[in-house]
Amino acid sequence: MTEAFKPVDEPGLVDCVREALAAETPLEVVGQGSKRAMGRPSQAGQLLDLSACSGIVAYEPEELVLTARAGTPVADIEALLAENGQELVFEPIDYSTLLGGDPGSGTLGGVLAANLSGPRRIRAGAARDSVLGISGVTGRGEAFKSGGRVVKNVTGYDLSRGLAGSWGTLAVLSELTFKVLPAARAVETLVFAGLDDARATALLSKAMGSTADVSGAAHLPAAASGGLKIDGIDGAATLIRLEGIAVSVAARSAHLADLLSEFGAPKKFDDAASRALWRAVRDCRPFAQGDPRVVWRLSVAPTTGPAVASALAGLPGAGHYFDWAGGLIWFAVEAGEDAHAETIRAAVAKAGGGHATLVRAAPSIRARVPVFEPQAPALAALSNRLKENFDPRGILNPGRMVAGV
Questions:
Q1: What structural domains does the chain harbor?
Q2: Residue 155 has pLDDT above 80, yes or no
Q3: Residue 306 pLDDT more than 60?
């Protein structure tokens, strides 16, 4: 790969894309490269590095709106928001540790390109649900804008949301505007010990159906819980998070402890311990830090999670834990020749359907196995038409999501 393009602003980005078009050179689009090991291996001949396209453009704490360039580190944005008692409410996952990188190295553009979210997705949605506007450059070398800096700003197609999860295959983002919200003043986690998957899922379902406004619901079997070394818990741990002002959190905590008494008396974690615990759940720490297994991310109906995990338990080195009240299964397994893709996707389909994404695996496996859930023919045809309209010459992240596209 030759020397990278490294624009510092949108006009420079337009020039880079047009130069690549003229030379018919496909581009690998990266911010800080924190998710470079996700998706299929690059089929590009030139690197488009957005790390210099960085910085806060506008921040209005009283209006709950922040605009920044695509290469701005998420860590910088979160630090600025914390100074003002605010946050990105969808708490985007940091894949860096799981993929062997430096913690906190993701960028704002990558957040939307991968449509990131964390445990709070069950209440607040993902990145696409908080984005207000974007600017970027298509694979045609044309600059565009969508949305703006107010909440109700969309007429026609909502490109800001439409490009979420496209992994840089349709356009290169240059600037993004997100809605931000006040951060919770108090956090408490109820930890129930010793439940199996089925009982834990029943607990999570009952908690989610209550009036307690749960903002995090996860279950870690003994192996995953042990990897986090949760203070005072030896074995499986089922977690319920409550956030808000202190008096409200205390009242809801007491209500939930009574409502869920059939599952045992919970241990209560305070603010600091809760925040650390949920960062570990968010960032898949049980399967990071030297774990050699491949890692899958399975999105299923919450009530079917135990059945999927049970169906896959016999695979070599199988391990799992649940987030999103059972709707997200993090699944680790020995690599094998194809990361057990057919078996895993068959189990998900048999349980009622969902999505299976191969998050971490060697490049040779990611080149052979569909990393993202294969699309039905009609949906694949629609995706191809979008690619043809945004990037007809196929120069932006070719093959990142689907071979040959």
A1: 49-182 (3.30.465.10), 186-282 (3.30.70.2190), 285-361 (3.30.70.100)
A2: no
A3: yes
